[in-house]
From TrEMBL:
Top-level lineage group: Bacteria
Keywords: Membrane, Transmembrane, Transmembrane helix
InterPro entries cross-referenced by the UniProt entry: DUF6163
Organism encoding this protein: Bradyrhizobium archetypum
Pfam families registered for this protein in UniProt: DUF6163
Name of the molecule in the record: DoxX family protein
Region entry Disordered, spans: 1-27
Listed Basic and acidic residues bias regions: 1-19
């Protein structure tokens, strides 16, 4: 008799546990785990950078199409180096934005290419866009933030 009552008690306990687990799964409260907190932060950062890349790409396209600037600053009146750099950034910024939004590895690579390209153009060829150290500093801060977040996210996942 004790074996039967022990089995019934174990069955009741399992039923209660299963009921509790199924109710927890049905509850509207979401239990947040701290397992992937850096990965979520990295994806959020990439999405913010995607929005910024879209704005930068559209700005360059506005320069190409003549939506912004005066007649003296028209695309046709600029140097060949300026025109080339502007078209390059108009295309690559929007490509990077798509990849960043999707949080794909190629998106980060394309975005890193745009960051480094802009810094090189500003530092090595100041005649094209004016050589603004502020732009270089902002690009360096964004690059540093990406590298720090990517490193912390990589540390979350075991090899």
């Amino acid at each position: 008799m004790s074996d039967v009552s022990a089995r019934d008690a174990a069955r009741d306990k399992a039923r209660d546990r299963d009921g509790a687990m199924s109710m927890a799964g049905m509850s509207s409260e979401r239990i947040e785990s701290d397992e992937n907190v850096w990965t979520r932060r990295l994806v959020t950062f990439l999405r913010v950078m995607a929005v910024i890349s879209i704005m930068k790409g559209l700005y360059h396209w506005a320069q190409v199409t003549g939506f912004i600037g005066s007649e003296e600053e028209a695309f046709e009146n600029q140097s060949m180096a300026w025109q080339t750099a502007t078209v390059y950034f108009a295309v690559i910024e929007l490509v990077a934005a798509v990849g960043l939004w999707l949080a794909t590895p190629w998106g980060a690579v394309v975005w890193l290419t745009t960051v480094v390209s802009m810094a090189v153009i500003e530092l090595m060829f100041p005649g094209i866009y004016g050589g603004s150290l502020t732009v270089v500093a902002l690009e360096a801060v964004m690059l540093g933030a990406y590298l720090a977040l990517a490193w912390m996210a990589a540390r979350e996942r075991p090899p």
